[in-house]
Amino acid sequence: MPGIKRLRAPIVYQGGKFKEIHHIFEHEPSDIGTFVDVFGGGGVVALNFSARGVSTHYNDLFSPLVLMYQTLQDQAATEALQKRLDSITPSLQEHAAICCGEKGVLERLFYITRCTMGVDPHYTKTPTPRFRERTTELKTSILPPSVKLVDYVPHVSKWRITQKDFRDVLAEYKDDADAFLYCDPPYVSKTTKQYTTAFTTADLLQIYEFMKDPNTKCRVMLNVDYTGWTREVFADLLRTAYPVTYGVKGTANIYQKYHLILTNY
Ligand SMILES: C[S@@+](CC[C@H](N)C(=O)[O-])C[C@H]1O[C@@H](n2cnc3c(N)ncnc32)[C@H](O)[C@@H]1O
Q1: CB of 61 closer than 6 A to ligand 1?
Q2: Residue of the CA atom closest to atom 3 of ligand 1
Q3: Is there an atom of ligand 1 within 6 Å of 60 CB?
Q4: Which of 37, 60, 68, 183 is the best mutation target for the ligand 1 pocket, counting ligand atoms within 8 Å of the beta carbon and taking the most?
Q5: Taking the model in full, what pTM does it have?
Q6: C-alpha distances out from residue 208 to 29, 39, 74, 201, 220, Å
Q7: Number of domains, the chain
Q8: Distance CA 63, CA 163 (A)
Q9: Are 168 and 103 found together in one domain?
Q10: 215 shares a domain with 136
C-alpha cells in the first residue's frame, strides 16, 4: 500500500516482517473483525494492523516478548521501563550481568536484540560486535535514539495479549468467521536452534490441516519460507511467492530467497 507509513517494532527481531507488511496487506481478507497475530514475535504486524484501527490480539509463547508488550500497555510502566533502559550504560563488565538477566528480563531482551542480533552471547567467545575497538564503550545505547517507548502505548493499550501455544489460539478462533489469523511461525528448516522453542514440520502440518478443515470458519494466512517441501506440500493454498533480500549494513543483496503466502480464503 503505497503512501502508508509503516510502524517499526521497538526491538529488531529475528524474522521481523517490517519489510513484508505490504505483501500481507495486499493479500488480507476483507472485513476483518479481529486481527490475531498467532506468532507475534517483535509485533510489527500487530502494530500495523492496530494502527489501522483493527481490533488486535497479540500472542507469542516467548515470555519476555509478552512482558514487553504488557508493559507497553501502561503509560507509567512504560515510562519507568524507558528510564531503566536509559540508565544502563553497557560495558564489557556489565555485559555478562545483562545477558544473564541479572538486570531484568526486559533489559536482557532489549540489550540482546539491540547489540547482538543473531549472535547469542552465551554461545560465542566474542561478547558483542558493537563495542568500540579496545574499549568497553558500546557504540549504541540499549534503545535506539529513534525509539520512544511511550509512542507505543496508544497503539498497544487496547490489545489483547496472550502467551499461548499456537494450537490453543487456532482452536479458540476456529468458529469465528470475522477473525483473521496471521501465522508467521519459526522456519522449520532451522528448528531447534531458533528462539526458545522447537518448531517442526509436524507443527506446520497442523496449521495446514486446520486451514483445510471445512469446519474452520476463521480466515488464516500462513507466511513461510519457500523450500521444496513447503512449495510442494502447501501447493493448494498458495496465494503468492515474493523475493526477500537479506543484507548487513552497507552491503545489500548478501543473499536472496523467497517467502510464500498461503491462505484458506
Ligand atoms: C518468525 S517469528 C515471528 C516474527 C513476527 N512476525 C515479527 O514480525 O516479528 C516466530 C515467533 O513464534 C514464536 N513461537 C514459537 N513457537 C511457538 C508456539 N508453539 N506457539 C506460539 N508462538 C510460538 C517465537 O517465540 C517467535 O517469536
Answers
A1: yes
A2: 41
A3: yes
A4: 60
A5: 0.89
A6: 18, 15, 36, 10, 10
A7: 2
A8: 7
A9: no
A10: no
Ligand 1 contacts CB of residue 152 (under 6 A): no
How would you write the pLDDT of the chain (265 residues) with one tens digit per residue?
A: 445 678 999 988 888 899 999 999 999 999 999 999 999 999 999 999 999 999 999 999 999 999 999 999 999 999 999 999 988 877 777 878 888 889 999 999 998 887 654 444 444 444 444 555 565 555 567 787 778 999 999 999 999 999 999 999 999 999 999 999 999 999 875 545 555 567 888 999 999 999 999 999 999 999 999 999 999 999 999 999 999 986 555 555 567 889 999 999 9
Using CA positions, which residue lies closest to atom 4 of ligand 1?
41
The verdict on 128 and 258 lying in the same domain is: no
Q: Is residue 158 part of a domain?
A: no
42 CB near ligand 1 (under 6 Å):
yes
Question: Ligand 1: which atom is nearest the Cα of residue 166?
Answer: 20
Domain coverage including residue 241:
18-62+163-263
143 shares a domain with 172 = no
**166 close to ligand 1 (CB < 6 Angstrom):** yes
In a mutational test of the pocket of ligand 1, which residue from 39, 49, 63, 169 has the highest number of ligand atoms less than 8 Å from its CB?
39
What's the rounded Cα separation, in Å, for the pair 59 and 229?
A: 27
96 found inside a domain: yes
The reply to whether 12 falls in a domain is: no
